[in-house]
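Exam revision sheet. Question 4 asks you to relate a sequence to its structure. Input first:
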Amino acid sequence: MAKDINTGQKKPNVLFIAIDDLNDWVGFLGGHPNAKTPNLDRIAERGVYFTKAYTVSPICGPSRASVLTGMRPETTGVYHNKGMYKDYVPDAVALPKFLMNNGYHVMGAGKINHAMGMIVPENYNEYGPDSGAIGGPFTREELNITPGKKIVRKDILGFTIKEQSGIVKNVYPGKVIKRGTLEATLPLNGIDNTLDRPLNGYNTFDWGPVNVTDAEMPDGKVANWATEKLAEDHTKPFFLGLGFYRPHQPFYAPKKYFDAFANETIALPKVQRNDLSDLSSTARQYAHYPWSGSFDRVQKHNVWQAGVLGYLASINFTDAQVGKVLDALDNSQYKDNTLIVLWSDHGWELGEKEHWGKHSPWEGSTRVPFIIVPPKSAKLKQGAQTSFTSLLDIYPTIADYANLPIPANLEGKSLKSLVAGTQDKVRNYNITTLGRASYALRIDDWKFIRYYDGSEELYDLSVDPNEWKNLASEEQYRQKLVNYRKLLPVDARFKQLIHYNEYKAIMTAQDEFHLYSMMHDKNGIGEQEEMSREYPEIVATIKRMLKEQKITKRHVNLSM
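Answer key, structure tokens:
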């Protein structure tokens, strides 16, 4: 273990494992009775797992930006999946770069940053396999659903891969793939992806077994590469960042991971009829408007249980890849002097709150698995830790274990004292940001949600863990709502936020008018494309209504 030349203290290696779209369906959190996660459970048993860990944002781009920069969306301006964090805060020193600047050899593979795993080259000394085409065994041409489209496949550094580029030839749906042992007709689940997001471009709302080996999957390649790196001799302390793409949709995994559930009855998530009847139209949009498919589509095709199985099989597959890495670490010279940090960028809902996907304010999207196993020489109080924690806490925690000064601009907290058992909690509440200016607050046993238009939800999770009874309209909780509103962040860049039918409008502090369709044909509810020029009549209508009704308040609902 290398020593810090200034303090003489030893620096641990860091094994940094990111898993995409993994909710609490893991053994150690008990989120689903059919979950098979022996390796994730093995890591949890070694260290501390946080039972109240929450994402900063329930969507890949801003969540990963917050982990890498240590800053909230209100600071960085990263609220969606468009671009990378460097496009918004070019001067930010990301976690890998911070460690590199302080003597670490920094390695990475798979999806750590957003943008299909594309990386910021300055952050790494070396980088391994990427996440392929949406984490599966198919090429981008094979997954593309637009005949005649020119596909340019780029590697992790942005260079074109000629052998994986070309013109989309076959039609979709019913696209037949025959390549080596891989034989498939897409979509595997029989649902036409163009029904919910006609301009999405790729077959993503899909699931099913594929006849390939683990090593033919991008995540399998990442795991194999990591085992090689752990077998090498490193003269510096290292940071090994691994981004596993599954269980991100599409839920493709080698057949054996589906077969593991063959003799089981797959339990479906608990749902309640007319669950959204006490919620606002804004909330219903987040529940029903498609991110990658919709729960309504799942029900219409009678494939709910098959979809749940696909997610469970994908988790089982990723768990096996994590197990290979853990075995390699245990068999290496670094087993005693490595800090393990494992986390998911956000969750995923499979019918809860009538929602299929992420990007919602409810527990299925916001609560995440988060584990820390310290080096053997560090203090440890093993087991569950119930303090509220945030993915913002990863950066300062790693800096703390590396015996480095924690940068002053970081907005998280070091969890080292929680892991050691010398402190019971580091924060009294946690806030998740959903798009621009919608928030989910977790405090004590309560969940408070406030949308950009001012509509609200309040749940007592001690008696209502499924968030079925919205208490926000009850008089006895009025003061609680007042108190909770004061805890929410305010992005001064937004002067006014307006809900108008399927549109979200924002008046900026510079009096610029921005418009987003929450039913965008390509990006769904992602708020990625500003559309005021495409819909000048909508802009004019909203401005006229605000003027005629003399509305100046910050949160506005003009929906009809």
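Marking note for examiners. The radius of gyration is 23 Å.
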